[in-house]
Amino acid sequence: MNASATRAVRLLTRQRLNGTLNARNGRLAQRTCSLFPRPGNITATRTIITASKLEAQPTVAKPPPPKDNETKPQNENSDVKRFSQFDLTGKVFIVTGGAQGLGLEMAEALAEAGAKVYCLDRAQQPDPATWSSALKRVPSAYGGSLHYRKQDVQDTSGLDELIASIATENNRLDGVVAAAGVQQITPAMEYNPNDVARTLAINYTGVFMTATSAARQMHKLRQPGSIVLIASMSGLVANKGLISPVYNSSKAAVIQLARNLAMEWSRKQEDGTGGIRVNCISPGHILTPMVRKNFEEVPGLREKWEAENMMGRLAETREFRGVVQFLASDASSFMTGGNLVVDGGHTAW
């Protein structure tokens, strides 16, 4: 066979071999595609199999994950106010026992949130230095304000008239904080009826009448709102070292009172009345003027109370600012009949 014939035979053999391989590759590709059917609405990666290599359509690389200290971009909206549920701008509140101590601190907190707050107490005028400092701590830019009115909660008719006049003057009343209270450290067998009656008149009857007078005006104005009663952890436990059975009993009564008033007033009625939430705050031992007097009367009492506390210290009045803002505002809109215990863990062990 000459050279030309030899080259022709080799070319024919190579073409037949390539045809056989292409046929096999085609059948293999069909089988591979049949195992993974592709839906009509999904674009899949197309795979081509040849005798020499496997080729795939390149995919788009994913962006790197964000770093730990990066935050997701937020939709900026000038109409959204930070912590808007706590905003009390334009609202009117009354705080009894508001001349000093915990009552004044809570009044400041409400004013700081934008409320117009009336502080009621039995003194003709609050202590000038204390009141002046409180006014300076309420920024006028926030829209809130403090106002003082002389009123003893034992004078229930005068209390009712004053609350009515405040509601009429402002054409609204959004709530009250009933913080007026007294304490008497006396062994039970040494109490007389007058001692008992005086303590209950302020700590229970005064609280009761404050709440009902406010609710009466809120119903009249079709004004829902929040009533906060200041109870005490002393209404839950017998405090070691605090021989004050009537005070402790009165605070237990206040906790139960809140539940009953909440049951009566919380539901919004068809005529627009109701919608008044009623809750309690039960503080632990706080460094108020009343408590400091206890320390003078009972040596070693402060050390004993601090030792009985999980945090090893007593509370400052400022530590209740956020609590009253929460209960007075829409931030607690689904809370009624409750009792917030803020005692540094004193009653938890």
- Largest sheet report: 7 strands, parallel
On the 0 to 100 scale, the average pLDDT is 85
Which architecture of the largest domain does the CATH hierarchy give at level 2?
3-Layer(aba) Sandwich
Number of strands: 9
Helical stretch count?
9
How would you sum up the global shape? elongated
Strand content: 5-15%
Could you give the order of strands across the largest sheet? 5-4-3-6-7-8-9
Which regions contain 5 or more consecutive residues with pLDDT less than 50? 32-37, 39-56, 68-74
What oligomeric state do the depicted chains represent?
Answer: single chain
The SSE order reads: HEEEHEHEHEHEHEHHHE
Question: What's the level 1 CATH class of the largest domain?
Answer: Alpha Beta
What is the helix fraction of residues, given as a range?
Answer: 40-55%
Structural class: alpha/beta
Rg computed from alpha carbons, rounded to a whole number of angstroms = 38 Å
Total domain units: 2
What distance lies between the first and last C-alpha atoms, to the nearest angstrom?
110 Å
In the CATH hierarchy, the third-tier topology of the largest domain is known as Rossmann fold
* CATH superfamily (homologous) name of the largest domain: NAD(P)-binding Rossmann-like Domain
